[in-house]
Amino acid sequence: MSAPVIVRYSDIVPTPWKNGRGITRNLFDDADAAGEWTWRVSIAEITGTQPYSPYPGVRRGQVALGPGAVDLRIGGRERVLEEEAVIFFDGEDAVDATPRASGFLDLNVMARRDRWTGAVEIVDGLGRVSADAGIVVLVALGDTASVDGDGLRRLDGVMLEPTVSATLTGRFVVAALARN
User: Could you give the domains of the chain?
Assistant: First the structure.
């Protein structure tokens, strides 16, 4: 593929979490016909205190999209994840999340540890991004973002496959996945 793939958040149909306790909107993954994936990027809605679904063998990255912060209990330890902060934990960890405001969303970057290494950061401004030999997923954090001149709304996603690059303007979460 030679061009970025754009997914509009408003077009994504929500699906239930694996444990049935919440909903998520899947932006991108490498799922096969049976629905099995080795990496996945999604946006979850958290209402009230919610236990996360377990994902053994998976490294999970989470970005608090807000509004506000979320209180996390990961393996019995309390953490506060402020808006736009990033945290990583293992899919085996028992995790409960309690948002501090209604309408809370988080971005999840999940990758099987035996296949992928993931990195997540927030970038702001103008620049060129390349997927090189891995996968890069970009999620717009505002309504003024664009990729190669295509306007994006908040939470729209863009995927760059190996050797694809794009020019960004605006503020983004950048999730980079590299094969082990």
Answer: 13-112 (2.60.120.10), 116-179 (2.60.120.10)
CA distances from 85 to 21, 59, 121, 125, 160 (A): 23, 17, 9, 18, 23
Q: What global pTM score does this model have?
A: 0.94
Q: What is the pLDDT along the chain (180 residues), one digit of tens a residue?
A: 578 999 999 999 999 988 888 899 999 999 999 999 999 999 999 988 999 999 999 999 999 999 999 999 999 999 999 999 999 999 999 999 999 999 999 999 999 999 999 999 999 987 889 888 899 999 999 999 999 999 999 999 999 999 999 999 999 999 999 999
Q: What is the Rg, in whole angstroms, of the alpha carbon atoms belonging to the chain?
A: 16
Report CA 21 to chain centroid distance, whole Å: 19
Q: Which amino acid would we find at residue 135?
A: I
* Full 3-state SS string of the chain: CCCCEEECHHHCCCEECCCCCCEEEEEEECCCCCCCCCEEEEEEEECCCEECCCCCCEEEEEEEEECCCEEEEECCEEEEECCCCEEEEECCCCEEEEECCCCEEEEEEEEECCCEEEEEEEEECCEEEECCCCEEEEEECCCCCEECCEECCCCCEEEECCCCEEEEECEEEEEEEEEC
